[in-house]
Write a structure and sequence with these properties.
With 140 residues, the chain is mainly alpha-helical. It has six helices and two strands; from the N terminus they run H-H-H-H-E-E-H-H. The protein has helices spanning 2-32, 38-50, 55-62, 66-78, 100-120, 126-139, and strands at residues 82-86, 94-98. Strands 1-2 form a two-stranded antiparallel sheet.
Amino acid sequence: MADTGREDLIAKLEKEFSIIIRRFRKEINELHGEELSGHEFVFLAYLVQNQPQIASSIAKHFEVTASYATMVVDKLINKGFVHRERSQKDRRIIQLTVTEKGAALYNKLRRVRRKCINRTFQNISDQELQLLTDLLAKLI
């Protein structure tokens, strides 16, 4: 009986996670408009904070395939937000850096996202946020 109750709770949690993630992605994608997808923003944010980088390091950080990371980076390059250049120390290495246009967009969207996220969690106390953070860390 206890196993069935636990399975029901896990199924309910799975459903609720799915709803939360879907809503959050929808809101974030609406905030970004046509400029950037959610994944592109996350990659851009990582680059802003950790540049220069190489595509394989980004893939490793986000636990995605190298081809997926390259695809997202290529989109950022095509939009003028990221620049690709050869390393001065080792010409075989292609480094990725954020352009001024990319940094400006990141700063704008970061402020908008922060407001959205704060609004999402406004009815949760600091103590509840800490508990949620601790529980999610356990899952990770």
